């Protein structure tokens, strides 16, 4: 790594999990929740840290600035970084130690986030690669999928509590997004966009 001298908090013992689609390889964020003695929940969000591998001002750094983000298209994506980084070295893969930028916050039962938010460099080791559909089915007691152990099951329960409290907070503070139609790209044989559709009607 380029930043060997950077002090990073060792969070590898914590039960971080990633939650993405089943096919995702570029896991760029991981979550760890913990219930405090007073009943509030402490959430640590770890973001993949590509600066550990990319020198500032390098050609790769400048290319990433131009691309700005990964484009997700039907059946494939155009990554901001080379796949060797986005899908491997930088990806927060389960059971692999990775550098990360972390944010730690405390969330009250009503969804309020405490003002004392900490940002710091860290190393983490995700303990499970979870898929949205499996987690959703598990919470709704549908299907056969179950977390691999009680530690992961506890993380799912705590993160679900945070999700519900934050949704309630946004509802009361008028920050809930209105329903809107989803738009999908229509691609030709060479994966070039030939239009897009909203709902059932195509646009070109």
Key terms:
204 residues, disordered C terminus, five-stranded mixed β-sheet, single chain, 12 strands, 4 helices, 23% helix, alpha+beta, globular, three-stranded antiparallel β-sheet
Structure in words:
- The longest helix has 23 residues, at 150-172.
- 23% of the residues lie in helices and 31% in strands.
- The protein has a five-stranded mixed sheet, with helices on one face. A three-stranded antiparallel sheet has the order 10-11-12, with no helix packed on it. A two-stranded parallel ribbon has the order 2-9.
- The protein is built from four helices and twelve strands, in the order ββββαββαβββααβββ.
- The protein has one domain (9-199).
- With 204 residues, the chain is of the alpha+beta class.
- It starts with 8 loop residues before the first strand and ends with a strand.
- The model is unreliable at 200-204 (pLDDT under 50).
- Its EC number is 3.1.13.1.
- Residues 8-204 form the RNB domain.
